[in-house]
Amino acid sequence: MLELIEPGTDKTVVVIEGLSHVDDPDESYEAVDVAEYFGGDTLEAASAVNLSQLKYSTKHPGTAWTVSRLCEKRTRRPANGGSSSTRSVIADLAGVYLQLLKKLDRSEIQRKVYIHLVSNQPGNPLVQEAVASAAHWARSRRPGEGRPALLKALTDPQHADVVKRLSDAVGQVLTSEQFCDFLAVLDLSRTGSLGRAALARGVRARAASLTPGRDDESALRLFELVRREALPESTRRGIRAEDVLAALGLADPLDLYPASARLTPLDNPLPAPGARVIAETLLAHPGAIVVAHGPAGAGKTTAIRQLGDHLPSGSVVTLFDCYGGGEYLSSGEERHTPQRFITQTINDLARQCGSPFLIRPPAADEELWRRLGRALEDAVKALDPGAVLVLAVDAADNAAFAAHKRGDRGFLAGLTGLPLPSRATVVLTTRSHRVKSLDASGAPQVELAPFDQTTSTAHMRRYRSDASPADATAFHHRTDGNPRAQYYALTQAETNKWEMTALLESCARTPSPCSRCCLSRHCR
User: Fold this and answer.
1) Which of 249, 292, 483, 514 could pair covalently with 299 via S-S, beta carbons 3.0-4.6 A apart?
2) d(CA 59, CA 419)
């Protein structure tokens, strides 16, 4: 269930005791104890579905699931008081496949459904190997081929014997061809799973990392959520991410990301000259903070967004946007506080690196910084060999300005004093005249260069394909290669249908001081 809030997961819902009510209105899937849906919440809409039967033994955890145990018949009395029936584990799982055929065709089942036996008792290696061999053959079987062809194709006599005994135990539940298709989606690899005590410890440990200071309370809420879902009166709506977050005390999932970046999409951006220089400086100063600065409109944000193109393969760049679309000074939209910066950064790392989420931030700033330090260590451990982690703080001077205006300390002082892992670095971008406001004295600095003549020419010809070399040269010199100044001139000329002379006359070397509110597609 906790996987519902894992970073990047496409798991959408977990149903206990059958499938969702939409897929199982008559509660026909008696053998399914847990159903996991991915990419959708119905059989038709989901991209993948895991259907599991759970078997747990307290007294004999080491007893293996042999073919005899799978085929052993036992008497079972339904909970609704109906007549008892004699069935085996393998026949129950085959019955699940038969029910699926009422909703999906065989090719769709093959594509997205797995039927699992999950148990703390280990699987018998011979059974697992035999089923795997049969599944490999069944996935590419030709139409009309059934059990006889499968048994003939299994070159290991022991494998053939196992499959024959499974087939005999299933009996007439499935046709010959259906039995082969059933084996193709049967998964016995989850036998030998952790015991309940170990699983419970794992949940408590996970709850402790998600909600510091509320360890047992959070775990008990999760257990209670499962218990309620398993009750007979459950609607089988299923457990979803919002249910897990609510159990952990988070009212709005958006609180996981209290200061998400508000940047416009880059549509085929021009290469930012500063990206490579920043990358080279970061790689030369592992575990350090680097300051990248330039005038207004120099392309600092674009350089940060293209930074990953110049880092080793597998590297990760998280971007914290201090400007927030111009709302960073609005009440309720603050981005300069330690709690918002650290919560956003830790959960961005979780999404990109698989490190733990932070659901309930600790109240004390010193605990917040400790949690960020741990998150950085966890994220670095998840990187590919040779890869690096970069925390990019864009428009950091705006965070400094907001902290000064509000009379707060802000997050910059804590960040510049945070010890970093050797494969992690921080880059702060700022306007050149505000470098001192970052309180990062001694940090290596990178001055971002403007567009060169070639890039300025490419920029101009996106709007004026007929621009002559002389026009492009004049455009470059009049704007001093400043990306945003160029964007203003080009878009104004396009809007007002200016001739080339008017366009060149409108060029300025730097944008006006308040111009950061303009979000250029090509040169932010």
Assistant:
1) 483
2) 50
Inter-residue contact 428 to 285 (CB < 8 Å): no
Q: Count CB atoms within 10 A of the CB of residue 497.
A: 7
Distance CA 238, CA 244 (A): 11
Residue pair 263/321 in contact (Cβ under 8 Å)? The answer is: yes
pLDDT digits (tens, 9 = 90+) for 422-447: 999 999 999 999 999 998 888 999 99
Q: Supply the DSSP symbol for 123.
A: B
| Closest CA relative to residue 98, chosen from 174, 186, 181 | 174
pLDDT tens-place string over residues 69-80: 999 988 766 555
Q: Around Cβ 71, how many Cβ atoms within 10 Å? A: 18
Write out the two tokens for 248: 């952990």
Are 392 and 321 in contact by the 8 Å Cβ rule? The answer is: no
Q: Is the pTM of this model over 0.90?
A: no
3-state secondary structure of 297: coil
Strand 316-321 relative to strand 289-294, pairing: unpaired
First-to-last CA distance in the chain? 41
Name the CA dihedral angle for 200, 201, 203, 204, rounded to a multiple of 10 degrees.
120
Pairing assessment for the beta strands 289-294 and 424-431 based on DSSP bridges: parallel
**φ and ψ of 119, to 5 deg:** -155, 150
CA distances in angstroms from 40 to 13, 45, 433, listed in the order given: 8, 5, 51
